């Protein structure tokens, strides 16, 4: 698996490589901060993202300061509605903070337009969702290739080769022509991981990445994430499962929109 | 309110934009029902106009008769007659700021006439030396004279008499356009008309009857003929009396032909909108599949759960019915008004057809509920566990076609960008809805192709008809006292006019067969008319010799008349002419659609005798050396002047002008059809917008995912544009066959209703034009859904449920 993971992370797009600061494994006092949230508050209008009646709002984050070093593997835990997913969304640039700043890989996300964020995301962060969120009309190989197509990295034939290598790295080399409906949950999540790593991003984000998998599959998935982390990718994931949280080198606990616990205490 | 009813309302307000779209789609279907109201509205308006005009039941044209008031009183009291109005029609050349034209001066009792009243539409009633312009002169005859303007009419004596136009009016019996005429009409007092015509008396009698059945009309005509013959010494009736059936109004037949097309279009629009509605309701219900499963786990029975869904559908249906009915009322009124102005120049106040309104309001909820039933039945039968487990992948890939498209063909390689591949394959995700959108585009394409081809056919037939007339000027006998039929002397004068290379005397009249009136032409053995016979042969010199008096004269029938009579060569028919019934023998059957194919060609001497002759030829067809319009105009003026100087007052009609007028008239009908077609095309395109908008709603979360993996706005646009173009091109492909079928149907409808055989004209360029049009319109109408898709915020999209 390790050698395959080596292939998986061997594709570092030229621009992404240029953007990346020096990476050091977790625990290295010299490691630079790759993700920083400073004084971040996030208020949603209405509950659950629906259009609310006038005057109704929901504060998801109440002032969060968080710094994550390059190469860390960090788990975010907390009860439902505590703000875990909001933190992941802010790091990915999917949501914008109401106040405060979010800096990822040297870029101030709060100052970027939607178009800039979309392009930035393709090369800087890979996201793995709880419910896989594959494109249903694309095969596994095409899903894995999608970020490369969007970022126009390399020639089309090269992109296909890279995608197939990524699928092989997650043990799906022979399932590339399958549609998502023809894959099991675990296989779909593997495809999602291959898609997330397509452009060789320095950061991998997971929002309950194993939430829809059984225990054995969840464990296999985590080994994949750990292997990526060992290879230098910064991994940040949300989980309810204490056992899975323990597999991270640092655990941040969130409650009522505030960080209430941090085993790492990094800069 | 019960929780289930609250859920029904909540389901509507949860996705307001989607609810509005469903209401809009249903509204379109209901609005198309409004087409059914157009004939009712127009008939109601026209019948009001007929009553207001006191339109004739029988109209009799005579030689100029100097009838006194006592004689008119007797006519008015003949058995079956309710009222009579005398009139004097005078056709002459007129000059004005609008140019020179032959005009008809109608001397009548104007607003006080008990029959064929001329109501005032604007300005004031004319006094001596003044006229009212017919409201349709501008549109139908291209000769608009504003109030306050002047026309100079050539009086019988030759002088140009200025007449001031004091306003506009309209008499349905005389107005051009509705009556198929292109001669401008001006109404004036009887005294002014008599002064211009240099005649005392009247040459037209309009009758209203106590009983307007055909039998009663025939009896009155016989009584009038007998009385007038007794007063004048000879039968003064110059042409077949005009009769009006109960409920009939001028222009009705033209409207009827167009309405047949309108009904076809309305049915197509309605059917395709219903198809789309079913697909829309299918989507709305399918999205509630997991909620239905949860309700089942909570103990909900099928009837209860179905009741919630159907309640939602019914609420949607009521909203759609109200919106569609209001739209349908507006569309029906606008269309009826358009026809009223276009065909008859009649003012048209706002009107509503109550039966259609009621039907529309009832149809909305009924259709919405009916459209929901198939999807609801499917949803209720789905196993609970499978539904709750649910596929987050949207179901794509379960079908063989899905897998085939994904793995083979042009959408499987890297040659096509990923976003385009996604968009094209998205067509198969909601197969029913995609099929509905394709069907709508196919109907729109089919209609466009059919109308374009029909236009080509109409243009071709006009060319065929005009091309058969080998003369440039038709010289007509001016009616009125002192007017003389054209004998040999008049023919010689015309033929010897500089610029004339040929002249033929012609009698133009009308005959009746089986109660239907047809044009009759009296021609020679070698006419300036290129007949094309499908059977038999033309007249021989012997047939057309003045001395020939066969017991059963020959006749050549135009194609429509031949079809109506089911005639064959050698058959004996009985035609009614001015002098009464006459037996004729079918000598040949023509194929040229002159006068809509309803022409009876007779040897000139024969028709002259049937019209009370001999020597009643009322026209000379003149061939000119030059085909230039200016030269034709000079020759026409010279011929008329020379004939007038010799005591033959004449009016002229130039073929190039008639050609332009016929073309304009046909284009007018085509414009009406095209307007209707555009309405339907708009409905179809709205269906496409609806389908794509639904797709954007459904894939909001996917758009968020795409944004998460680096898709920019142009990638998002490309996904949905690809889907739209695939739907449009697929619809176009199906529309090719549909268009050809509709075209054949239109040709058959025109053949049956108007008895005109249009040639098949289906040039391949029409297909390319419609393809370009469909793609261009598609890319235009999807801008709204695309804008929405690109504005979806990824954070909000990922939370979308």
SSE blueprint:
The complex is a heterodimer of chains A (267) and B (801).
Chain A: H1 2-8, H2 14-19, E1 33-44, E2 58-69, E3 73-77, H3 84-92, E4 99-104, E5 107-108, H4 114-124, E6 125-128, H5 140-151, H6 156-169, H7 185-196, E7 203-207, H8 215-230, E8 234-238, H9 242-245, E9 250-255, E10 258-262
Parallel strand pairs in A: 3-8, 3-9, 6-7, 7-8
Antiparallel strand pairs in A: 1-2, 1-4, 4-5, 9-10
Helix pairs in contact in A: 1-6, 5-6, 5-7, 6-7
Chain B: H1 3-14, H2 16-33, H3 37-53, E1 58-65, H4 69-76, E2 81-96, E3 99-108, E4 120-123, E5 130-134, H5 137-141, E6 150-154, E7 160-169, E8 185-189, H6 190-197, E9 202-209, H7 214-232, E10 242-243, H8 252-286, H9 289-297, H10 302-344, H11 354-381, H12 384-389, H13 400-407, H14 418-426, H15 431-466, E11 473-477, H16 488-495, E12 500-513, E13 516-523, E14 533-536, E15 554-557, H17 559-565, E16 572-577, E17 580-590, E18 599-603, H18 604-610, E19 619-624, H19 629-645, E20 650-654, H20 655-698, H21 700-708, H22 713-753, H23 765-781, H24 783-790, H25 794-798
Parallel strand pairs in B: 3-8, 5-7, 13-18, 15-17
Antiparallel strand pairs in B: 1-9, 1-10, 2-3, 2-6, 2-9, 4-7, 5-8, 6-7, 11-19, 11-20, 12-13, 12-19, 14-17, 15-18, 16-17
Helix pairs in contact in B: 1-10, 2-8, 2-10, 2-11, 2-20, 3-10, 8-10, 8-11, 8-15, 8-20, 8-22, 10-11, 14-22, 15-20, 15-22, 15-23, 20-21, 20-22, 20-24, 22-23, 22-24
């Amino acid at each position: 698996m390790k050698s395959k993971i080596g292939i998986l992370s061997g594709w570092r797009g030229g621009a992404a490589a240029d953007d990346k600061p020096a990476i050091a494994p977790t625990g290295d006092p010299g490691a630079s901060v790759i993700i920083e949230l400073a004084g971040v508050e996030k208020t949603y209008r209405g509950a659950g993202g629906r259009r609310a009646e006038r005057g109704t709002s929901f504060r998801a984050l109440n002032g969060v300061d968080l710094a994550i070093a390059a190469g860390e593997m960090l788990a975010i835990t907390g009860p439902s509605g505590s703000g875990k997913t909001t933190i992941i969304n802010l790091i990915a640039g999917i949501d914008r903070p109401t106040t405060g700043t979010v800096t990822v890989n040297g870029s101030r996300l709060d100052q970027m337009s939607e178009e800039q964020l979309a392009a930035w995301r393709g090369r800087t962060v890979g996201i793995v969702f709880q419910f896989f969120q594959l494109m249903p009309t694309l095969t596994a190989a095409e899903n894995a290739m999608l970020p490369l197509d969007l970022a126009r990295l390399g020639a089309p034939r090269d992109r296909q080769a890279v995608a197939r290598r990524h699928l092989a790295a997650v043990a799906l080399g022979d399932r590339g022509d399958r549609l998502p409906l023809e894959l099991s949950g675990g296989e779909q999540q593997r495809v999602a991981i291959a898609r997330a790593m397509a452009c060789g991003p320095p950061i991998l984000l997971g929002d309950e990445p194993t939430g829809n998998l059984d225990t054995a599959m969840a464990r296999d998935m985590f080994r994949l994430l750990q292997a990526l982390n060992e290879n230098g990718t910064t991994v940040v994931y949300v989980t309810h499962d204490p056992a899975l949280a323990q597999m991270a080198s640092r655990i941040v606990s969130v409650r009522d929109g505030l960080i209430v616990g941090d085993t790492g205490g990094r800069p | 309110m019960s929780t289930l009813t609250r859920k029904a309302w909540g389901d509507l307000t949860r996705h307001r934009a989607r609810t509005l779209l469903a209401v809009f789609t249903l509204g379109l279907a209901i609005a198309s029902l409004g087409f059914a109201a157009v004939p009712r509205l127009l008939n109601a308006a026209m019948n009001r106009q007929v009553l207001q005009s006191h339109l004739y039941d029988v109209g009799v044209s005579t030689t100029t008769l100097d009838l006194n008031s006592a004689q008119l009183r007797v006519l008015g009291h003949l058995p079956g007659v309710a009222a009579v109005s005398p009139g004097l029609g005078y056709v002459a050349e007129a000059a004005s700021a609008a140019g020179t034209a032959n005009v008809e001066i109608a001397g009548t009792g104007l607003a006080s006439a008990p029959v064929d009243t001329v109501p005032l539409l604007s300005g004031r009633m004319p006094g001596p030396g003044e006229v009212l312009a017919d409201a349709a002169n501008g549109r139908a005859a291209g000769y608009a004279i504003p109030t306050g303007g002047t026309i100079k009419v050539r009086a019988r004596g030759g002088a140009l008499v200025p007449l001031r136009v004091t306003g506009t009016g309209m008499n349905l019996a005389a107005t051009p356009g509705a009556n198929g005429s292109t001669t401008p009409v001006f109404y004036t007092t009887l005294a002014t008309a008599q002064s211009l015509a240099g005649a005392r008396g009247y040459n037209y009698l309009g009758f209203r009857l106590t009983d307007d059945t055909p039998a009663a009309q025939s009896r009155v005509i016989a009584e009038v003929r007998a009385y007038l013959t007794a007063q004048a010494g000879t039968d003064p009736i110059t042409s077949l009396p005009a009769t009006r059936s109960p409920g009939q109004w001028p222009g009705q037949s033209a409207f009827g032909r167009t309405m047949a097309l309108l009904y076809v279009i309305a049915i197509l629009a309605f059917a395709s909108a219903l198809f789309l509605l079913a697909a829309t309701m299918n989507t709305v219900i399918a999205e509630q599949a997991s909620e239905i499963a949860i309700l089942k786990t909570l103990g909900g029975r099928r009837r209860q759960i179905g009741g919630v869904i159907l309640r939602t559908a019914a609420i949607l249906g009521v909203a759609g019915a109200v919106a569609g009915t209001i739209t349908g009322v507006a569309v029906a009124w606008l269309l009826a008004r358009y026809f009223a102005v276009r065909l008859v120049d009649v003012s048209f106040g706002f009107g509503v057809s109550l039966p259609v309104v009621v039907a529309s309001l009832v149809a909305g909820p009924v259709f919405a509920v009916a459209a929901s039933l198939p999807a609801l039945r499917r949803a209720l039968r789905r196993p609970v566990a499978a539904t709750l487990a649910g596929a987050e992948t949207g179901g794509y890939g379960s079908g063989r076609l899905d897998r085939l498209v994904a793995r083979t063909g042009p959408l499987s390689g890297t040659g096509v960008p990923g976003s385009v591949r996604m968009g094209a394959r998205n067509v198969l995700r909601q197969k029913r809805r995609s099929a509905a959108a394709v069907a709508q585009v196919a109907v729109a394409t089919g209609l466009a192709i059919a109308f374009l081809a029909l236009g080509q056919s109409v243009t071709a037939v006009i060319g065929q008809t005009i091309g058969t007339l080998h003369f440039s000027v038709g010289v007509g006998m001016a009616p009125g006292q002192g007017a003389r039929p054209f004998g040999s002397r008049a023919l010689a004068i015309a033929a010897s006019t500089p610029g004339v290379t040929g002249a033929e005397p012609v009698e133009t009249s009308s005959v009746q067969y089986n109660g239907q009136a047809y044009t009759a032409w009296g021609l020679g053995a070698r006419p300036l008319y290129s007949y094309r016979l499908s059977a038999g042969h033309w007249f021989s010199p012997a047939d057309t010799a003045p001395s020939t008096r066969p017991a059963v004269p020959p006749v050549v029938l135009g194609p429509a008349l031949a079809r109506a009579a089911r005639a064959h060569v050698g058959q004996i028919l009985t035609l009614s002419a001015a002098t009464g019934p006459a037996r004729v023998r079918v000598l040949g059957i023509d194929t040229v659609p002159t006068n809509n194919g309803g022409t009876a060609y007779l040897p000139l001497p024969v028709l002259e005798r049937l019209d009370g002759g001999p020597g009643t030829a009322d026209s000379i067809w003149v061939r000119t050396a030059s085909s230039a319009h200016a030269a034709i105009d000079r020759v026409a003026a010279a011929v008329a002047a020379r004939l007038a100087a010799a005591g033959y007052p004449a009016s002229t009609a130039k073929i190039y002008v008639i050609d332009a007028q016929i073309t304009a008239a046909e284009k007018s009908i085509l414009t009406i059809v095209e307007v209707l077609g555009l309405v339907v095309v708009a409905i179809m395109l709205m269906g496409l917008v609806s389908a794509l908008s639904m797709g954007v709603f459904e894939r909001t979360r996917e758009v968020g995912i795409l944004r998460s993996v680096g898709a920019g706005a142009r990638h998002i646009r490309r996904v949905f544009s690809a889907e739209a173009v695939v739907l449009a091109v697929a619809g176009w492909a199906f529309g090719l066959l549909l268009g050809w079928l509709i075209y054949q149907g239109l040709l058959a409808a025109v053949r049956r209703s108007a008895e005109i055989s249009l040639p098949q004209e289906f040039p391949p360029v029409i297909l390319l034009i419609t393809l370009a049009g469909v793609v261009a319109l598609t890319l235009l109408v999807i801008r709204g859904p695309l804008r929405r898709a690109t504005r979806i915020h990824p954070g909000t999209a990922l939370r979308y449920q």
